[in-house]
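Reference record
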Amino acid sequence: MLYLSEPQKRQIEAHAAECYPQECCGALLGEEGESGREVREVFPLVNRREDSPRNRFAITADDFRAAEKAAQQAGLELIGWYHSHPDHPAQPSDYDREHAWPWYSYVIVAVKERKPAEMTAWRLADDRTRFQTEEIQAKLGASARRGGLGAGAARVH
């Protein structure tokens, strides 16, 4: 389970729309609890891919370190990554699978003609052969935080 607030979801969608027709990318900072992962901060990054940014994204080692440092400074963990699929479904590609790491959550947002569409979340299986769906649930502001991970959550459809 991945808990994502509506403002965080809108932030990812806005980043995706802004970068269209290229892919956007960023990090998800948060914490893991018994009932799932809670995103506490969205950390936008620049797509460093120069040869095909419309259907691929890349980050540098410095980008990775910056995301880890931001998480550490906030007392959080780097729990995942997000990117967009311009004019394609929010489904991971074989390329996504080949370049992903197990354990992390991966959020993909489809963007059609600069308008965000479906948002999905995935985790790569430990044997790296497939992605497994990770359900996204909306968290409702500070009440989700006070009540523990998952309290005050609502389904995202």
Notes: Helices lie at 6-19, 61-73, 94-99, 141-146.
